[in-house]
Amino acid sequence: MTTEIYLDGNATSPVLPAAIAAATCAMGQRYGNPSSSHAAGLSAKALLDQARQCARRLLGVGEGRLMFNSGATEGIQTAVLSALVALRERREQGEAIGSLLVYGATEHKAVPESLAHWNRLLGLNLTLHKLPVNPQGTHDLDALRACASEAALVCTMAANNETGVISDIAGIQSVLEQTGCKAYWMVDCVQALGKLALHLAETRIDYAPFSGHKLYAPKGIGMLYVRAGAPFTPLIVGGGQESAQRSGTENMAGIAALGTVLAALERGDTFRTHAELEDYRARLADALRAALPGIVFNNPFENSLPTTLNFSVPGLASRELMDVFDAAQVRVSSGSACSAAKAAPSYVLDAMQLPLWRSAGAIRMSFGPLTDAAMIDDACRRIARCGAALRAGCLIPSERNGAAHDGLLQMGVEGACSWLVLDAASRSCVLIDPLPDHTARIEAFVRCQNYRVQAILNTMAGQQNGALIEALGRHAASRVSADAYGWPALPDKVTLAGGQSVPALKLGARTLACVVDGAQRHYLLGQAQQGQLAVAAVRFAFSNNQCAPALQGLTGAATLLCPSRDEQNQFCAGAMAAATVCCDSLQLDHAGLNLLLAAHPDALLIDVREDYEYAASATVLPVAGKVQSVPLSRLTEHAADWLATADSTLVFICRSGNRSLKAAQCLRRLGHQHSYSLTGGWALAALAQAA
């Protein structure tokens, strides 16, 4: 099994083996409650004190508080609560406190959401004020200077989790001091631990939260620094632990593990130097530049953590990049881990005023200071393989033509569709209802495979295709006269069922017929015989209205209806479509798949990842079955063939189980009752293989 390359360290890190051993010891041998006065408790208390003293020295907390908690989110909550309670008390005593809760525009979402939450609950009714950043990602100090006199609390971060951009902490402190600002100041130090030198007591910082799982400690353990003299209100009370600062029995396994990591940092014998990490980043950047033409890095390396790269590639969505890297078992993320599942641009890059294509298509690679040169070498080799797969799949420019395809290609299956009807033998194609958002993708695909576009057709009048025609250049057919729907003025005709003679285009062995229906057009695709396109020969119908009366009598039970809009994400529809599909009945776990294959050894396993993912894949499915690659974008073409053998057994597979479930649901709706999806996809299959 190929080892994964983990490049998502800013989201979380693996746990240091020594930290695992320390946690195991704390649970197995030193399991006492540190609040107990017997020997077992005293042993645990000694472990707790040792970890705290190490943290105090490493962070330079001086006389300040340093308490253990569950992580940065709790630390942020505690800091915000402490500051806002103090502000309310000061205001009640008649003191002017300022009206603004200032936070950096690129802060982790936990900060503004905590500010809003406690501001409302405490009834302060202060105004949340977003502090802008410049295109390099650092805070706008002039903007801070302008609002400092009204600031009650200022929240910034030491280094950004998405870009690794290092904040000008000294500059922020200088502004606060020069303006005489009395606001409390919280600095999120989560990404700084182990990567930046911290001497907290030498700064004006009032609160600094930390999270252990960002630096080789387990999840669920963190720390909060509170400057000596800064106000403090416990978030959790009830038992008096942590000197009454944070009640609840201490997480001794987590503290022992974090203490081991901190001790390693203090010794300086475990983690890579800053110079080594900069070299690793430079090597990764060079590999990315070689593999991905036009790549743009969104973080300035000279002012960022050496462990973080954030980049975008023209014409590629972050999901496509994520998928190809994941296929090669290179783990990266799109933006921050907390928002990676959301199909939205990065608010961090938006705040840096970067173009939408960069913020919407951004990928973050991040690694920890335990990374070694061998892992970087392997990562660079896999990056090269990902680039080759994307070139072969026509997603990025290539000097070589890609392999031509027959059939249908559907672009965009999340509410809207562009259809490409392809003929490999003649290297020609027809576009139906191309969406403006797909112009770059269609142009790249057509150029890569050296197709000639015979026509650009629309099912409704008024769609403008000038930009696409311009982009296609020599690959577009000569500008013959065409109507408002893009249909060229050609003399070819075909006779449909009922004797209706309609305009037709020849596309290799197939015929595309045009049906006029008032303000709409429908297009029928099939193999005509002796100038006639019989009902049984119509395999596909393209329409803006799947229930159009004009199609009745022209299409049959085997015809698949291909929509120009697909809000329900159904890909295609058919006359035999089921009303509802129960997800539970078609999902298989790994054990269920093996049972099904034992009962149906001729079952077809269908990988619906895109071609570039399949080409980059480093995983072999641990089952005794043949795997066929049918990208989800080509599902409709193959569905027509599978429906012809309705007794066959189909098992769809993808990276995570989401796309395969959609494919299985589509086939079930079309009437194929032996279609299934592998739950968890390749990701869980790989885990099952490892187990």
TrEMBL record:
Residues 599-691 form the Rhodanese domain. It is an enzyme of class 2 (transferase). Keywords: Aminotransferase, Iron, Iron-sulfur, Metal-binding, Pyridoxal phosphate, Transferase. Its EC number is 2.8.1.7. Its cofactor is pyridoxal 5'-phosphate. The keyword Iron-sulfur applies. It catalyses: (sulfur carrier)-H + L-cysteine = (sulfur carrier)-SH + L-alanine. Gene3D superfamilies: 1.10.260.50, Aspartate Aminotransferase, domain 1 (3.90.1150.10), Rhodanese-like domain (3.40.250.10), Ribonuclease Z/Hydroxyacylglutathione hydrolase-like (3.60.15.10), Type I PLP-dependent aspartate aminotransferase-like (Major domain) (3.40.640.10). It comes from the Bacteria. GO terms for molecular function: transaminase activity. The keyword Secreted does not apply. Belongs to the class-V pyridoxal-phosphate-dependent aminotransferase family. NifS/IscS subfamily. This is cysteine desulfurase. The lineage of its organism: Bacteria, Pseudomonadati, Pseudomonadota, Betaproteobacteria, Burkholderiales.
